[in-house]
Structures are given as structure tokens and as C-alpha cells.
Write a structure and sequence with these properties.
Blueprint: E1 5-10, H1 14-22, E2 30-36, H2 39-49, E3 53-57, H3 65-75, E4 80-84, H4 88-99, E5 104-107, H5 117-132, E6 162-168, H6 172-179, E7 189-195, H7 199-212, E8 216-219, E9 230-235, E10 238-245, E11 248-255, H8 264-276, E12 280-284, H9 293-301, E13 305-309, H10 318-326, E14 331-333, H11 338-360
Parallel strand pairs: 1-2, 1-3, 3-4, 4-5, 6-7, 6-12, 7-9, 8-9, 12-13, 13-14
Antiparallel strand pairs: 10-11
Helix pairs in contact: 2-3, 4-7, 8-9, 9-10
């Protein structure tokens, strides 16, 4: 982490700008170097203040946050954290911002919010600190050919041929936006994703992804039967495990007893590897810490395929790097290539099965 982080605050509310600035008025490594009331002012202020991180409001006059973000990412990419309300519409715009290059989003601090103000301040501070450590080259505008699709999903009966278990923390939204919308519904796999965010954000993100993907996306539910062609998202605040019940695979979802210790990804991968063995694919994406490293090692030990997001595309490299180092047979793959890698695994298995059938015949 940088010793001194230069922060530019952009919000049309003077009260909100001052409230955020006051969080770093003393005893902080974050230095507020400028404020702006709209997107146009922000673009000018960037040249004058040379910030390391920007907090950017969405709804502003003259130039809104999304338009400003596009300009910033084209002219001079800077790690940007969006300020958004937690309404359904606010969440949708926040996820749009992640596609356009923002590294994360945070709820606007409010004394009326259920969360204690000190917790909100800690959340804002931690996200600014990790944004400052992001490699600018990893910030990319994500194009989606499926945006605003209205689609009928044909959910197959029977259990999936393979289960893909993914885990991510900080920086994971962007990686998942480059993977899930590009998964094919023609591949008979189930996808389990543990992401470190609150449950309400999982619900909103699942709904958002479902509207831009050609594969069905939903939040994981307890005792749910896994079906091919479905992505099941769950929060790292819960332990989600795979079980075999008759001819089906089912999910067990329960609150994590020690959620702050970040063990939910390992728990998911251990259970999937134990049940699926060589039919498990484990993937560790961007995040801090080391959750997922032991789980990915277990995927390899049980004969499955292990993938870690490569360093160049990871906003936070700790988790995938640690996992790759521990799971010696894992491979590094860029986030934008992970969906294609999964499709290639399916194609190779199909070709192998076809060749075996022909030789037997």
C-alpha cells in the first residue's frame, strides 16, 4: 500500500464531499487533494491534482458520473471507486460503472443507514486503499454483446457433467463480468461462485448478470439441486458446499461461523473436489488474502482442473498468486479468456469421448 494516497472527491453535494474529506482529516495515509461538484470539474481537477484514486458520485448535473468515468478511462485511467445508493437502480448503475472501468463501489455514508457510521468509514477507507494498489493496466472497459438481452433459458434435467467452483474477493466484480456473460448455455456444466460481498449485493449482482448473460444466473439456495447451464452466486458470509443426493448434486448453504476469517472459498472447493473429483474445475480470481489456495490444491489432488486469474488482469493479485503457488499444476489464465478455457475443456472431453466410442465400436 502507498504511504500517501492522493484522493479526489467528486460529488455534487458539498455536504457529502466534506463528510468524506473529514474521514481523512487527521491520522490517515489518505490525503484529499481536491474536490469537484460534477464530471466536467473532475476532469479538469485530475490534471491539477494528479490523484491516485477518485471517489465518483453517479448522479450529478452538467456531467454525470458514468459519462465522467468513460472520459477518465479513455484519457487517463485512474482507479475509481463509485459512490452509489443501495437501491435496485443504484446497484444497476454501479455494476454498469464496473463494466466501464471502476474498481469497486461503496454506499454513500449516511447516518440513516442501518450500518454503523464507523463501519461505513472503515469500508470507504479500505476500498480507497486497495484501489490505490491496483495496476492501471488491469482497469479495462468490459464490452458485452449480450447487454439487455431478453432470453428464455432452457434448464436441463439431470446432473451437470462438471461443476466449476469459483472464488473471488476484492476486484472480483470486474473479473466475473468478463467471465459469466460469455459462458455458453450449450455447455452442460454448473457454476458455483463464492464472492466476498454482502448478501444483498449478491442478489443485485445475480439479477444484473442474468440480464446480460446467455446463461441463467441466480443466488444459491439451501437444498437446491444443481442443474447444467446455471450459475449459482453466494456470499462469502455463507458456507456453500456440494453434496451428492441420489442421482443429483445438491447445495448446502449456511451462515459462516467465522466469516471474517475468509474460509468460504476453500470450503466450497474442498466439497466440490471431494464429490466431483476429476469433474471439478476450480478457479481463484482477484482478491486479497489467501482463501482458495488450499481449496485449489485439493482440486488438483483429486484430479480436477485448477485455474488462477493471471497477474496482469487481477485488480488484487494476492489470492490468485497464492493459490497458483500452492496448487502446483494450476494454470494462469486472463479473466477475459476463462470462459473460452472452460468451453475448450468441454470440447476436448467431448472429442475424447467420441474417439473412445468409435474405437470401441
Amino acid at each position: 500500500m502507498k504511504e500517501n494516497i492522493r484522493l479526489l472527491i467528486v460529488d455534487d453535494s458539498r455536504v457529502m464531499r466534506d463528510a468524506i474529506a473529514d474521514m481523512f482529516s487527521y491520522g490517515s495515509s489518505i490525503q484529499v487533494v481536491g474536490q469537484a461538484a460534477n464530471g466536467e470539474e473532475a476532469i479538469k481537477a485530475i490534471e491539477l491534482t494528479q490523484p491516485d484514486v477518485i471517489t465518483l458520485d453517479v448522479a450529478m448535473p452538467v456531467m454525470d458520473g458514468i459519462t465522467a468515468l468513460k472520459h477518465i478511462m479513455i484519457k487517463k485511467p485512474i482507479p475509481t471507486v463509485m459512490l452509489s445508493s443501495l437501491t435496485l437502480e443504484g446497484a444497476r448503475v454501479a455494476f454498469d460503472a464496473l463494466r466501464y472501468g471502476a474498481v469497486d463501489f461503496i454506499a454513500k455514508p449516511s447516518a440513516l443507514h442501518d450500518t454503523d457510521l464507523s463501519e461505513q468509514e472503515a469500508d470507504i477507507r479500505s476500498k480507497i486503499e486497495y484501489a490505490a494498489a491496483v495496476e492501471v493496466d488491469a482497469i479495462k472497459y468490459i464490452r458485452s454483446s449480450h447487454h439487455n438481452m431478453v432470453q428464455e433459458y432452457s434448464l436441463e434435467n439431470g446432473r451437470p457433467e462438471k461443476v466449476v467452483a469459483m472464488g473471488t474477493a476484492e476486484g472480483g466484480y470486474g473479473a466475473l463480468l468478463k467471465i459469466i456473460p460469455h459462458l455458453s448455455q450449450d455447455v452442460p456444466y454448473s457454476y458455483l461462485v463464492t464472492m466476498y460481498t454482502i448478501r444483498e449485493h449478491v442478489d443485485a449482482f445475480a439479477s444484473y448478470l442474468n440480464n446480460i448473460s446467455s446463461i441463467h444466473v441466480k443466488r444459491a439456495a439451501h437444498d437446491e439441486v444443481l442443474r447444467p447451464g446455471v450459475v449459482y452466486l453466494n456470499s462469502g458470509l455463507d458456507y456453500t458446499t456440494v453434496h451428492e443426493q441420489g442421482d443429483d448434486y445438491t447445495l448446502h448453504v449456511s451462515p459462516a461461523p467465522f466469516a471474517s476469517r475468509k474460509g468460504a472459498i476453500d470450503m466450497l472447493m474442498f466439497s466440490a473436489a471431494d464429490i466431483l473429483k476429476e469433474n471439478c474445475i476450480g478457479i481463484v480470481l482477484s482478491g486479497t488474502g489467501f482463501d482458495g489456495a488450499e481449496g485449489l490444491e485439493e482440486v488438483v489432488r483429486m484430479g480436477g482442473v485448477a485455474i488462477a486469474q493471471d497477474k496482469m488482469t487481477s485488480l488484487c493479485k494476492n489470492m490468485p498468486t497464492t493459490a497458483h503457488d500452492r496448487a502446483k499444476e494450476s494454470i494462469y489464465v486472463a479473466d477475459k479468456d476463462i470462459a473460452e478455457t472452460i468451453h475448450n475443456i468441454f470440447s476436448m472431453n467431448n472429442n475424447s469421448n467420441s474417439s473412445g466410442s468409435e474405437q470401441t465400436g
